Amino acid sequence: MKAIVQDVYGPADVLRLRDIDRPGIGDEEVLVEVRAAAVDPGVWVLMTGRPYLARVMGFGLRRPKVAVRGRDVAGVVAAVGARVTRFRPGQEVYGTCESGSYAEYASARQGRLAPKPAGLTFEQAAAVPVSGMTALQAVRHSAGVRPGQRVLVIGASGGVGSFAVQIARASGASVTGVCGAANAGLVRSLGADDVIDHTREEIDRDGPCYDVVVDTAGNRPLSLLRRALTPRGTLVIVGGGHVAYRFTGGMGRTFRAPLLSVFTGQRLLPLISRERAEHLEELTGLIESGAVIPAIDSVHPLAAVPDAIRHLIAGHPGGKVVVTVPGTA
Ligand SMILES: NC(=O)c1ccc[n+]([C@@H]2O[C@H](COP(=O)([O-])OP(=O)(O)OC[C@H]3O[C@@H](n4cnc5c(N)ncnc54)[C@H](OP(=O)(O)O)[C@@H]3O)[C@@H](O)[C@H]2O)c1
Q1: Which DSSP string do the residues of 220-285 spell out, in sequence order?
Q2: Domain residue spans in the chain?
Q3: What is the C-alpha R_g of the chain?
Q4: How far apart are CA 298 and CA 302, in angstroms?
Q5: 250 touches ligand 1 (CB under 6 Å)
Q6: Which of 168, 179, 195, 201 could disulfide-link to 173, CB 3.0 to 4.6 Å?
Q7: Cβ contacts of residue 222 below 8 Å, gap of 6+?
Q8: How far is the CA of 155 from the centre of ligand 1 (A)?
Q9: Probe ligand 1: pick from 130, 136, 160, max atoms within 8 Å of CB?
Q10: CATH no. for 2-128+294-324
């Protein structure tokens, strides 16, 4: 099969389109014929091996353990392992994969897949898993956003933020999105009641008025984030500023926030997102009810994955950067 492969850590130039063997599957795994994948900042982390903390955490000290990049996947089940009960060949699925989705086939655990939402294209479905689950866990599971609350989403036009705005709205909150001027129209179209242009104003513009702040941009100190929060408000830290910090990926706020929480009425919560079929199914419900529509920035062919990654990391995407993979059937 064709796949985007890397032998060493480095910039997008280290990626090559090559013919390699299809991945094998274990008893609990599904072989997916990939129709679409997506790009998220985690792909950049695994491609570059930066922050170095990621290498120590088990992704490979000198070179990436998994040579094919790409985590989000949407496609058709080609084969199932002996103990797979939830899926059968021919079924359309979406989720996250183990072997890398910038390829014609990928292996995925059955517990990390769900049936593709009705009415979504493969490209739209591939845009959902990593970013949608992160936004869902930030807005609903961590912050527990309730009707009538005021929510601030920082990085509202990005992969996670574009889902967070819609999920907060669907939870009955009023939403202010923080983004650059070029993406203000998109963020309003996703349901934001108000927009703060981060190139002109800061997030504490309106004083300590937000019950919940979801920070995906990762480049503001805790003190500034707290100034936008009500005295008993909740901050969810999603982004860590991975590009700027070579060793730890800007995890300093993540470590300090829980300590500081002990001394303040505000809840300061770092998020480590999890990949679970039940969270995909919760997203499917939001999508099929019309409350959430994946926002797509651009679609790139498999061979152009390096450009797609460069585009994401250059910043300012309006929604998700997606990769389309031609069917092999
Ligand atoms: N904690 C977890 O488990 C978890 C899971 C997934 C992702 N993440 C992290 O979450 C972060 C965001 O991911 P993503 O996929 O949403 O990235 P993304 O698609 O690149 O979006 C980031 C957004 O941040 C906005 N932005 C840039 N500078 C800003 C500033 N100074 N103020 C406010 N907004 C600014 C940009 O909007 P404009 O172009 O409009 O400026 C951009 O759209 C990354 O650090 C990623 O690693 C964490």
Answers
A1: S-HHHHHHTEEEEEEEEE----TTT-TTTSSTHHHHHHHHHHTTSSSEEEE------HHHHHHHHH
A2: 2-128+294-324, 131-270
A3: 19
A4: 13
A5: no
A6: 168
A7: 235, 253, 256, 257, 260, 268
A8: 5
A9: 160
A10: 3.90.180.10
Look at residues 259, 251, 219, 216 and name the one whose alpha carbon lies nearest to residue 237.
216
Residue 41 Cα: closest atom of ligand 1: 47
Kindly state the tokens that stand for 324: 């389309």
- Measured by CA distance, the residue closest to atom 45 of ligand 1 is 239
- Give residue-wise pLDDT tens across range 127-164: 999 999 999 999 999 999 999 999 999 999 999 999 99
Instruction: Output the CATH code of domain 131-270.
Output: 3.40.50.720
Place of tokens 């898993």: 129
Name the token pair of 200.
Answer: 């002109």
Q: What is the pLDDT of residues 45-62, one digit of tens each?
A: 999 998 787 787 778 888
d(CA 215, CA 223): 13
What is the CB neighbour count within 10 angstroms for residue 247?
11
What is the 254 CA–ligand 1 centroid distance (Å)? Answer: 15
